[in-house]
Design goal:
This protein is an all-alpha fold. The protein has one domain. Helix 3 packs across helix 4 and helix 5 runs antiparallel to helix 6. The longest helix has 33 residues. The radius of gyration is 23 Å and the shape is flat.
Length: 184
């Protein structure tokens, strides 16, 4: 648009401030209650750590956090089926071996996937699509510290699919040139 850069910046800031104002106005009752979901997560995490301490080798069993949590939750706390932290969920459900295996898998896959995400068959050129996919999987793995995306198939399957795609990429050290029998 033919507007000056300063006007564009002012318009974007104005839209952002109006959006934030509307958000806080709409959810003001939630903030007045003290953001109970945040404090509830700390209670879930405490229970998961406690369960992992009591059953460090095998955990409480796959998908059984709700049973373990019901035994240790505070009376005023709301009931939860999942820990809201995929890593603590692994520790609670599968014990320390399960947690270590999951963390090592995620760290190794992200580490091995990163160089492949930055290099392509064309020397000196970054492939921003692959890097963006890697960055998205990194974001998913970090969000898993405060959410349970591992237990939502529509979130976990694409993340693991993209992670597998990054790991399967082959890097070529020589530039690819079309052969005589290929069509360009």
């Amino acid at each position: 648009m033919p507007f000056s850069r300063q006007l564009k910046v002012v318009l974007v800031i104005g839209v952002l401030l109006a959006g934030l104002g509307g958000f806080f106005w709409k959810y003001s009752a939630f903030f007045q209650k003290g953001a109970t979901s945040v404090s509830a997560r700390f209670d879930y995490w405490r229970a998961a750590v406690q369960t992992a301490k009591v059953k460090p080798f095998f955990g409480s069993g796959p998908g059984t956090f709700a049973i373990a949590y019901q035994k240790v939750k505070r009376p005023e706390s709301e009931m939860a089926r999942l820990v809201h932290n995929d890593y603590l969920e692994q520790a609670s459900d599968s014990g320390m071996p399960g947690l270590l295996a999951y963390v090592l898998f995620i760290v190794a896959a992200l580490t091995r996937g990163y160089p492949k995400a930055r290099k392509t068959a064309a020397p000196g050129r970054d492939d921003w699509l692959m890097f963006s996919v890697w960055l998205g999987v990194l974001g998913w793995s970090l969000q898993s510290l405060v959410e349970f995306g591992l237990y939502i198939p529509s979130v976990a399957w694409p993340a693991f699919t993209f992670l597998g795609w990054l790991l399967a990429l082959k890097r070529s050290t020589t530039p690819q040139t079309p052969g005589p029998d290929t069509h360009c």
